[in-house]
From TrEMBL:
Keywords in alphabetical order: Glycoprotein, Metal-binding, Signal
Name of the protein described by the UniProt record: Pectate lyase
Signal peptide (UniProt feature, chain positions): 1-19
An example Gene Ontology molecular-function term: metal ion binding
Lineage: Eukaryota, Fungi, Dikarya, Basidiomycota, Agaricomycotina
Keyword Signal among UniProt keywords: yes
């Protein structure tokens, strides 16, 4: 019994001293995002698909220190933009059926420090505010976006621009910025941004446009338009970027090299980037040689910047296969992501479309998204009875915010168990 009382008093200390990642497998600059930890955490169960009000997603993310779980799946159509509070873990992987798509306008993560966002789709569309992004971050630190599908931005699709640091975007899809702007997005920050195993597809330009501290590893960029693929700074401000083991695959809209607009302020370590320019229906490219012909007029570095690395560095072709199988809200893919990957990306250059209105064929809008049925959760603490019984917590007592021996709350252990660690 002496041991028990000892561990009971020591564990909370250990948990605060030993930094645990945002979730098992979290990597990159945003890996230490706390989510709902670091305050009195609560669980918010989203129980309807309403735009606002009790039980809605908008209400769920309006307060800090919440783990947001979903007892419904489907399409949440929003009129005005949603603003996410700091210290929120949005666990889209908990939604039954085909998961959650937020459609109709964009979402702001400005000042949403310490957020974790996983397995959810944000599709803005033509009804969204003119001149706004699907996802915007204008300031803030420590955020991780993992398996997020974002599309149809009216300005940019996923845009970081300002006093922003310690961000990771992993295993995501950034797609189909709407004409006439049609942008993947700016990745312009004062601090670090990591982009890992993410697909940029069907954007006229800025796939992405990078400035500041950035690591771009194991990504796939498909069918960039005439505005450019990876835009290297194009700025008087300094950049220090690693660009490793990515795949650049030209599509029908692609008319220029993957890298453009570099200048002497863009300091970069490049390695093992694969380029397939011929749009011939097979993956038969080559590794880009380190020359300004291929990377534009950047300042090449001999050594890699010591940024937080990926846990496993994949070869470009393995990265391509990983993105094919896992990128985006891939627990259950919707028809949009399936179309983008299966029909367009896997045409290896033959298919890809300019779009101004995603409600028209072949996309035909964001839905339907099947709703499914949530498992029984008697105590409404966010963890289903079956999981509680199997893991020794009480299905009749709301105990999901208690801290388990590994430093995570019970609710985090549950939501993290639903998806594989990278
Ligand atoms: C959700 O919206 C429906 C339809 O407008 C409404 O009947 C219902 O009361 C709303 N639910 C809540 C909890 O506000
Ligand atoms: C970013 O993370 C690093 C390493 O954890 C930390 O030293 C730095 O203070 C963070 N920056 C901000 C603005 O929080
Ligand atoms: C898809 C889109 O909305 N617009 C641009 C992005 O890239 C495409 C390729 O699909 C370009 O042709 C478009 O201009
Ligand atoms: C030195 C080198 O690898 N140059 C390559 C640059 O990219 C072009 C195509 O854009 C290749 O043909 C070159 O071999």
């Amino acid at each position: 019994m002496k041991f028990l009382s000892y561990s009971a008093c020591v564990l909370p200390l250990l948990a605060s001293v030993l930094a645990i990642p945002a979730f098992p497998g979290a990597e990159g600059f945003g890996a230490q995002s706390l989510g709902a930890r670091g305050g009195t955490a609560s669980v918010y169960v989203v129980t309807n698909l309403n735009d606002s009000g009790s039980g809605s997603f908008r209400d769920a993310v309006s307060q800090s220190h919440r783990v947001v779980v979903f007892a419904v799946g489907g399409l949440i159509t929003i009129s005005s933009r949603i603003v996410v509070s700091p210290n929120v873990y949005i666990a889209g992987q908990t939604a039954p059926g085909q998961g959650i798509t937020v459609y109709g306008n964009g979402i702001s993560y400005s000042a949403a420090h310490n957020t974790i966002t996983r397995f959810i789709r944000f599709r803005m569309g033509t009804t969204g505010d003119s001149g706004k992004d699907a996802i915007t971050i204008a300031n803030g630190h420590d955020m991780i976006f993992d398996h997020v599908s974002v599309s149809w931005g009216r300005d940019e699709t996923f845009s970081i621009n300002g006093d922003v640091s310690n961000i990771t975007i992993s295993d995501s899809i950034i797609a189909q910025g709407l004409e006439t702007h049609s942008c993947g997005g700016l990745m312009q920050s004062t601090g670090g941004v990591s982009i890992f195993r993410t697909l940029y597809i069907d954007n006229q330009t800025r796939n992405p446009k990078v400035k500041g501290i950035n690591e771009f590893t194991n990504n796939v960029v498909y069918n960039w338009g005439g505005g450019g693929g990876y835009i290297a700074g194009d700025s008087a401000g300094p950049s220090e970027a690693n660009i490793l083991n990515n795949v650049f695959l030209s599509g029908p809209s692609t008319s220029q090299h993957p890298f453009t607009r570099g200048n002497a302020n863009f300091h970069t370590f490049v390695s093992n980037n694969y380029y397939d320019p011929d749009q011939d229906g097979t993956l038969n490219g080559f590794i880009l040689g380190e020359s300004t012909d291929n990377y534009s007029d950047v300042d090449f570095q001999d050594t890699q910047y010591p940024y937080p690395p990926v846990n496993t560095l994949l070869s470009p072709t393995d990265a391509f296969n990983h993105v094919r199988d896992h990128a985006g809200a891939s627990l259950v893919r919707d028809h949009v992501d399936t179309y983008l990957i299966q029909t367009e990306m896997l045409s290896f250059g033959k298919k890809g479309a300019l779009i101004t209105d995603p409600t028209l064929a072949p996309i035909n809008g964001p839905g339907p998204i099947s709703g499914g049925t949530a498992p029984t959760d008697t105590d409404h603490d966010g963890i289903p009875d079956a999981y509680e019984s199997a893991h020794g917590t009480n299905p009749n007592v709301a105990d999901s915010t208690n801290i388990a021996s590994n430093g995570y709350t019970n609710i985090e252990n549950y939501v993290n168990s639903l998806v594989p660690a990278v």
